[in-house]
């Protein structure tokens, strides 16, 4: 295995970041749905679950920044020549949207927490307090209330968009697998690519 991408497959760094981010995003989507639908404000475990959700989201943010930087400096393997132009546009467009979402969702979450009138700190996995965004944290409670609502709405819609895009991404990966090309295998550790 190579650390960097080759023309045939993704390297170890890209694969590791891809799968860590995917696992973290799916975990956080499940936690977010759980918090919204099944946990009341009076549930004693809610605070702890919210802190875990925030910690995972911040981890996604920093892993995503690394992933975007790695993507810029390390070209990805080309799509198969047999793929039509419409599918190429769809594939590239869905990837750019995924990059946008893995940055925008945690950023809006961070803004949401920073604009909270409660002013509760974010405990990053119990290790330290993550700082709020200063220009939001310094607002008055009255100024924060509408912003918090707006950030929550955007955060929620972006999360639902990520679910839909995840389904499209998974469908595309399975399409390539059943089509017989190596697009899925080149992102799977330990698989062999022959051409």
Set out the fold topology:
Elements: H1 12-37, H2 46-73, H3 85-114, E1 122-124, E2 128-130, H4 134-137, H5 141-179
Antiparallel strand pairs: 1-2
Distance between the termini: 15 Å
The shape is: elongated
Rg from alpha-carbon coordinates? 19 Å
Strand order of the largest sheet: 1-2
Structural class: mainly alpha
Tell me how many strands there are: 2
Q: What is the strand content?
A: under 5%
Q: Please identify the oligomeric state.
A: single chain
What can be said about the biggest beta sheet?
Answer: 2 strands, antiparallel
Give the low-pLDDT segments. none
Q: How many H/I helical runs?
A: 5
Mean pLDDT: 91
Elements, N to C (H/E):
HHHEEHH
Give helix % range: 55-70%
Describe the protein's architecture and organization:
Helix content is 65%, strand content 3%. With 195 residues, it is mainly alpha-helical. Strands 1-2 form a two-stranded antiparallel sheet. Strand 1 (122-124) and strand 2 (128-130) form a beta hairpin. Helix 2 crosses helix 3 (85-114) and helix 3 (85-114) packs antiparallel against helix 5 (141-179). The longest helix has 39 residues, at 141-179.
